[in-house]
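DM from R.C. (forwarded with permission)

"hey, sorry to bug you on a friday — could you get me a structure for this? deadline for the figure draft is monday and I only need the backbone to look sensible"
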Amino acid sequence: MKKINLYLIIFSVIMLNSFYGYSAARIDWINGSIVSTGSSSMAIDEHGSPVDMETGKQVSISDARTISYERAKEKALSEAISLIGEIQVDNEKKLKELVLNDPAVRKNIPEVMEVYSRYKEKPSGYLTSSCELNFSLGYLLTAINYSFPGDSFPERNDIDISTLYTSLIIDVRGLGIKPMLLPSIINENGLEIYNKNFINPSDAVKYNTVSYVYSEKDALKHKKAGKHPFISAALRNLNGNPVVSDNDLKKIFSNKKNIEYLNKCRVIFIIDR
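My reply, with the result:
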């Protein structure tokens, strides 16, 4: 698809508030991806030959199937792009606000989606093709024009016992916390002790800043969890982010290896269904 068409789709969707009518796309926060589908069919003339309706010309069966699939891919990509405006980036902005206000984001998003979308063909008829698109949400971090300074995590000098934990699991159920691309974790004094400033951006792109699950069982078997995760129940919701008790933070910050795991985004939130 020509990039100019992708830009027009983004602008149109944002101006229509993104969710206008039916969309064949969905955000799958559990798997950290956008999933969309598209389908296309070729017409048949009175002689039973495939016809390209855009040009009115007869085409071979092989060409008809190829054209049909390429158009199905374009539709799947269009559907995926139509959904991204409502994605929450952090507690302050949705993606559509960045697109409206930042020319670089307007340019980057369609290019990133075009490059990193993965397609699976699903033939559904003689001259009909269906296509499923899967796009990892982490790649959006390369398009939003945010900085990842790589700051050191806060140090603690009040820890007596050091314990190794392979990940941090936070149960946020019942607090109204919704998934976002760049969530934070906050201590009882209101300070952010985990956010985009502390993480490795390449790990965030590959694994997502935070992974989301619906149950403790799913959290424990998640690939990020490791053999000895630390499980914490969030105290409350502060601007869409979980507040974690100081006692729990002392434990998670008790070992330098734990901090390395945080840097690698080995964080999981258990959210409401």
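R.C.: lifesaver. The first helix runs from residue 3 to 15.
me: no worries. The radius of gyration is 22 Å.
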